Amino acid sequence: MSDQREHWERVYTEKAPDAVSWFEAAPRASLAMIEELALPLDAPIADVGGGASHLASELVDRGYTDVTVADISGEALQRARDGFAAADRVAWVIADVRAHDFGRRFRLWHDRAVFQFMVAAEDRRAYVAALERNLDPGGHAILATFGPDGPTRCSGLPVARYGPRELAAELGAGLDLEHSREVVHTTPAGTAQQFIYARLRRSQPDRDEAESVEGRMRPEARITVARLLDEARAGLERLGPAAALEAQRQGAALIDIRCEPQRARDGLLPGATTTARNVLEWRLDPACPYRDPELARSDRKVILICDEGYQSSLAAATLRRFGIDATDVVGGAQAWLAAGLPVERAG
Ligand SMILES: C[S@@+](CC[C@H](N)C(=O)[O-])C[C@H]1O[C@@H](n2cnc3c(N)ncnc32)[C@H](O)[C@@H]1O
After folding, report:
1. pTM of the model
2. Which fold has domain 237-338?
3. Residue 335 above 60 pLDDT?
4. CA angle 183, 51, 112 (to 5 degrees)
């Protein structure tokens, strides 16, 4: 995944909120489309990539009580809070929405000018997975992106442009396009930009509830191993072998989950703990009576290494759900060996 955190922190540090091209004194189109939904005032609403927008304060003014704003840039959220007297009535989350699990579901997911920056297929997949994780079945998503005649860049970065149908197709079969409108935004410099606002509704049953009458999963709810891996990795800051070794030297726990024949063939990694894959969750869950107290800790980084770096990604994603700061090694032990890093003879 491309990491654009630094870019956005710099933008919001160097530019006044009303000087950026996407600035709007009042988020009129977003508010109009939200009001059309007539949601109950306690409906959970997320504004993802909310930046310094006034949307949250406008929603609180209208009586909405469960508003969350997430953005990759802490500076952006600080700008949004500046001068907003009721800022403590909003949940502010500094997070990359592609990887974040809010741990709850929203009735409304609002995104103005964020998804359009996902120009790589991998980023779009991670974003859609996050949307699926965090949107209520039956909930709505309102997304605004540059339209087909909109600019090709924004904030110096390339963007993807969409018509409503292309946007709905990109977001996947679980979201039905209900309504769209074109909005012309005028930037502070006076340039007109074509935006498409689309309202979509999540129709897909929750994966957990997706059993068919025969007890088999519906085809549209099935997942592939490639997708499973993409979703797992979207939440990891993976390390190359050299970075993993350095992190281990700084105190991280390196856990070798290779099977015994692989360790016998290629050797042991100095200082690594060997934990069999089939007991890993029981050793690492801090709430499990069979935990290893040295490893099942939220205050120590855990780095998993397997033979080639696939199984370790799935396992690390699971450990993160226990509250463990887990990641894995890109390329696994094979990459470690290829990098000439230390190994010891097994046995
Ligand atoms: C063009 S601005 C739009 C801001 C706001 N939605 C608005 O309409 O004023 C894009 C915003 O997306 C945020 N952003 C970009 N990539 C992100 C990501 N992966 N996760 C969370 N926020 C992101 C940026 O920090 C920035 O605030």
Report:
1. 0.65
2. Oxidized Rhodanese; domain 1 (3.40.250)
3. yes
4. 25
